[in-house]
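Incident log, structure service

09:12 report received: a user says their structure output differs between two submissions of the same chain.
09:20 pulled the input from the user's history:
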Amino acid sequence: MVIGYEQLPKDCYDLASCINEMDKIEAENHKSKRIVKVREEVERLLACIKDKADHYSVLNIDRDATIEEIRKAYRQAVEHVHPLKCKDIIEADGAMRWKLSQALLRVVEAFSALAHPARKIEYDGELDRRPQVPIPIPPLPDDINQSAKIKGDHRTAASLPTGLIEAGPNRIGIGVAFGHSDPYAPEVKDRRRARRFALKLPVRITSQDGSWAEVTESLNVSRTGILFCISQPVQEGTPLQIEVQMPVALRTHSYDKVIYVVRAAVRHITPADEKSFKIGAEFIEHA
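09:34 re-ran on a clean worker, output below:
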């Protein structure tokens, strides 16, 4: 940077003093520019958080960025918003500590999703809403009525979500639709907060990071969880993505979709046989 003579002190006569003063002025200018840059980057990231921007916008990169470009963007962002690198700014403005922490957490979240190839592919799919290969779906009778209720539910048909199925002389209930002789799905007796039904439905189970997926069949389902068998070993608390052709009566969202997609957490595991495990998973949020 070129320093003008007008910026030098009037008592700066010898060359060494002039050079020293010029260095000080340049350092102060550099510091001021850095502070401005940090504040701009923090405000940009806080705006991303407020607007729920995608990970690419957070790291300020394109969708086709390479892994090296993703890492470079991450390093640059950390250089600007890491609290340990901004102690001088925090000392001057205490509120910046919270802002820097929030910005850094968002950067780390974006990087953790995009730096791992499997997670990046899964995330890109979510952004594009790309349809996955459909899981096997059993054929349903053409005359299923989509506007009644499950046996034992005393609510009126008008108060139930669209898609509940009522059995009658000319109607087929959800039990028959999924292979049961009784028009209603058999209810599993237990003390859980939601009734479970012994429905055998095709289910695709996918790990949170997308590293594995397995198609299986449900043993029973409810509005709050599902029981199934898989060969993939998992641990309690493991997050999973569940895709199932859930009866509309047992859904909490996506009533108009063929496939019900929901995130779940593994709550209990028991061996089913030598090669598979019986998994009880609780629904925790929309996928």
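09:41 both user submissions now match this output. Likely a transient worker issue. Closing.
09:42 reviewer note: The chain has seven helices and eight strands. The longest strand covers residues 260-271.
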